[in-house]
């Protein structure tokens, strides 16, 4: 099989594979913070560290210039147990195990331009709290938001030290939720297309230091579908605004075996206040999907250590505060992102294959909301979350001969 035909086959397998593994809803609160298992081992602090095509497409497309021709398949699973308890005695835990698949491919066949394509989850969450009629909760609270994004990308080296990348992100989203309202139970199911884009810059001022910037533009997903209000049919639409965000980080190779990364991220979460829910018949329910949201920050760092040739260990930490204010919380939209992530990972290299494993646990501070702040949904919001995952990377064509060049242990293109 020729190299070009092999690349086309990889792209087709990626699209078929991810479409067949679309998750029921990603964990996380508002924005999915990572896309691959290998970066998960570093707590997603990889905007300045080239690892694999999926991570590059998600965080910083400029990294594609430093990666050999390769294809990555990644699957993350999340043990996700949010809990809601209110003053009337209702106390329920939603026990979810959503999956986050992603795939990516990069080629330098048309150098100096490097092309990539991938599919990943951009954002989402899933909650399903049971009904307890004896506690005044007649129906369950249910929310399932999933957004899948395609990422065709191109990257170019402006100089041997400065790299620029761009990815267009056509997306498809689906939102389902069930919740009580003043006029009766709402049962909503909407879906539709959207678009945003990702721009990245990578600069290597020395052979040991990388500086990276990734920027996601504002976007919109136009979701249309059906609803039932107190048992009566209706048409509904949601103009879902996705926020812009900036990631800035550095990766420094202290020794041939040890690399340190640090990173900060800003997300304009307040853009969610522009997301509108509209019904064709029940106009009284029209309005913003969420109110009183503050912009958010995420800080973190990590280390990657080559234990011996072919075995690389990683660990890290990330922290971010909550974004939705207490007055806007509900069982269908809790926000528990006063969140600290502690992961570990290992990558095993053998021949043309690389296998990554990672697992981690999140410490989340409970939210306790008084009736004075939130008359409709006071109570306690908790979350118990952990993750684990498996990733496979296959080096193709010329990438088989130069795969080590992008690894921190031997330097990315002799720069890191």
Q: What's the CATH architecture name?
A: Beta Barrel
Number of domains: 1
SS-based structural class?
Answer: mainly beta
| Residue windows where pLDDT falls under 50 for at least 5 positions | 1-29, 403-415
Beta-strand fraction estimate: over 45%
Radius of gyration: 22 Å
**What helical percentage do the residues reach?**
under 10%
Largest sheet: 21 strands, antiparallel
Tell me, what's the shape?
A: globular
Summarize model confidence as the mean pLDDT: 84
**CATH third-level topology:** Porin
Highest-level CATH class: Mainly Beta
* CATH homologous superfamily title: Outer membrane protein transport protein (OMPP1/FadL/TodX)
How many strands appear in the DSSP assignment?
21
Order of helices and strands: HHHEEEEEEEEEEEEEEEEEEEEEH
State the end-to-end distance: 33 Å
Number of helices: 4
Give an account of the 3D structure.
By secondary structure, the protein is mainly beta. It has a single domain, classed as Porin. Helix content is 8%, strand content 52%. The chain is built from four helices and 21 strands. It has a 21-stranded antiparallel β-sheet that branches. Strand 7 and strand 8 form a beta hairpin. The longest helix has 18 residues. The N terminus and C terminus are likely disordered.
Notable traits:
disordered C terminus; disordered N terminus; Porin; 416 residues; 4 helices; 21-stranded antiparallel sheet; mainly beta
């Amino acid at each position: 099989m020729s190299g070009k035909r092999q690349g086309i086959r990889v792209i087709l397998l990626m699209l078929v594979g991810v479409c067949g593994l679309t998750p029921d809803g990603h964990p996380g609160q508002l924005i999915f913070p990572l896309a691959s298992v290998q970066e998960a081992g570093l707590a997603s602090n990889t905007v300045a560290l080239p690892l694999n095509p999926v991570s590059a497409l998600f965080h910083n497309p400029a990294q594609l210039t430093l990666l050999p021709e390769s294809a990555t398949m990644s699957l993350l699973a999340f043990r996700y147990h949010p809990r809601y308890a209110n003053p009337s005695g209702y106390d329920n835990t939603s026990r979810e195990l959503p999956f986050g698949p992603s795939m990516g491919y990069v080629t330098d066949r048309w150098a100096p331009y490097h092309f990539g394509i991938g599919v990943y989850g951009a954002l989402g969450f899933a909650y399903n709290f049971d009904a307890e009629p004896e506690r005044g909760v007649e129906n369950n609270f249910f929310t399932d938001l999933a957004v899948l994004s395609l990422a065709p990308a191109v990257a170019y080296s402006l100089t041997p030290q400065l790299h620029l990348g761009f990815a267009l992100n056509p997306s498809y989203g689906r939102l389902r939720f069930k919740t009580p309202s003043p006029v009766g139970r709402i049962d909503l199911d909407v879906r539709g297309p959207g678009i945003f884009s990702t721009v990245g810059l990578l600069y290597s001022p020395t052979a040991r230091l990388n500086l990276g910037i990734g920027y996601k533009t504002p976007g919109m997903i136009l979701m249309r579908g059906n609803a039932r209000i107190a048992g009566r049919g209706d048409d509904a639409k949601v103009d879902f605004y996705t926020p812009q965000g900036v990631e800035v980080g550095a990766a420094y190779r202290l020794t041939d075996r040890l690399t340190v990364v640090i990173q900060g991220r800003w997300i304009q979460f307040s853009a969610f206040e522009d997301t509108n829910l509209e019904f064709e018949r029940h106009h009284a329910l029209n309005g913003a999907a969420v109110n009183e949201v503050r912009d958010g920050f995420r800080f973190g760092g990590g280390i990657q250590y080559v234990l011996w040739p072919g075995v690389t260990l990683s660990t890290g930490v990330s922290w971010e505060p909550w974004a939705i204010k207490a007055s806007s919380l509900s069982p269908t939209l809790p926000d528990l992102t006063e969140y600290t992530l502690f992961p570990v990972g290992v990558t095993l290299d053998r021949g043309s294959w690389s296998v990554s494993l990672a697992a981690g646990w999140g410490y989340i501070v409970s939210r306790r909301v008084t009736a004075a702040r939130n008359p409709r949904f006071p109570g306690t919001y908790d979350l118990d979350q952990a993750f684990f995952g498996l990733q496979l990377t296959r080096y193709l064509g010329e990438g088989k001969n130069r795969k080590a060049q992008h690894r921190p242990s031997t330097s990315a293109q002799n720069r890191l």
